[in-house]
Structures are given as C-alpha cells and as structure tokens.
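EI: anyone free to look at a 275-residue chain?
SC: sure, send it
EI:
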Amino acid sequence: MNNKYHYLISSLPDLAFDIDAKGSDYQKTRQDIASQLMQSDLVLWEAMYLHHDNKNLLSYLMQTGELHNPLAKYSAEELEQEVREPGKLHSYMFDFVEQYWNKEGDAGKEVSYLELETKLQKYFYEYAGGLNSKFIRRWFDFERSLRNVQAAFLSRKTKRDIANNLIGEGDLVEVLSRSNASDFGLKGEEIWLDRALSVFEGKDIVEREWRIDALRWEMADELCELEYFSIDVLLAYAAKMQIAERWAALGEEIGAERLKQLIAEIHSSFVLEKS
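SC: here you go
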C-alpha cells in the first residue's frame, strides 16, 4: 500500500512557473520533505535529483573544470574517492565507472563528452526503470523520449550519426534513427511530441528552453493527476521545484527584466497555441 503524506503535502509552498520566486528556499524545502519520507520513498525522491550527480561525475571524468554542483548526493571528495574505488555509488554509476576504467582505460579520456553522457544516461534510465514507482518509470521514460528527440534534431543539424546519440529501444528510437522527414514522421503521434517537435525547430534558445520546461511542468501534473497525498505528488513537486529554481537562477543570469519580457512574449503565443 502506498504511503500517504497528508500533512506534508497540504503544507507545501505553492510553486509557480515564473522568475519572480525570489526568497524561495528550494533547498530547505527539499531537505524538509526528504526528512519526512519513509525510507522506500526517500530512494525515489533522491532519484529525481540524481542528474546533478551524473553531471558531476562526467565533469570529473572529463576534467571540464566545472564547479562541483552541491545539489548532488555525493560531495566532491566522496565522488573522487568513489571513482577511484567504487563502493557506495548507486549501482548504475558503479557499472558506468567500471566500464569506463575497464574497457575505456586512458582512451576513455579521448571520447567526447556527448558520447560519455549518452552512455551514462543509458545506465541511469535503466536504473530508474527498475525502481518500484509508476511515476518514476513514466517520468523518466518521458524524459528519455524528450532527450532522444532533442538529440536527433541536434545530430541532424551537426551532421552526426543520429542512432549513436539515442538511448534505449522502441518505436520512437527506431523512427528517429531511420526517418529523413523534417519532423521525423512523428507529427500527430502524441500531443506532447507535436509540441516538442515544434520547439526543437525553433532558433531562439531562451524560447526553446522555456517551452520545453513548460512541457515538463504539465507532464509532471499529468502523471499525478489522480493522486492526492501519495509519494507521486511529491515526486511531481520535485520535478516542478527544480524547474522553478532553474528559472529563478536564469533571471539573475540573463537579467530579470529582459527575461521577464521574453517569457511574457513566449507565454502569449503559448496560450494562443493551446486555445
């Protein structure tokens, strides 16, 4: 039977998809939620944040010089130790690091970041697919499909082999690998796919990112639509909280007023699109 979190969910701060959430302490909210979860649900909650660890791991292996993201589960010191002598890493990370050292060796450092990222993502999605959560499986299946569509567009633009940059199997991967159509022959298949295709055809980076995160936001809501006080509601909240946090940070980076103006323009066309 699913654990219920009536009080916790009813006391959560409201989230909004905008850049005006100044003063919101997302990390405190994240920690507060984690401290009140049953152990079996804590594993699922942590899975929603493992992409930070994935990025840190790739940055360490590829020596990109990027600062260690403190939102990750493993500290910089722990990650360095685990890469040398894996013991506490998540199973998928352990498998990835083992393959990196055993099969790639020094040559692994000559592999492109994108190639390594694709391999690590493959391991991660397999791990997520094995977790005991319908929401997690569906969410990361959506994320993988979205990532594959984006990778297909990028590979086509840069004249790279599409198939090598796709993750997993299935009809979507097959179509993306083989189709020469401008829309990969996917228009009309699913509503979210239609919208993703139109987004990736766009040239404005900010607009693309905003529309894709809007799509993620809606999907998070959709996947817990009939849930009220279960862990699924909290997992959807984690997805949305990270989106809100990202755009709050982008407001500081790009300039809040300029970003606000851009988003207002995008939002107007987005609402018209849906009506």
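EI: Residues 24-132 form one domain.
SC: 👍
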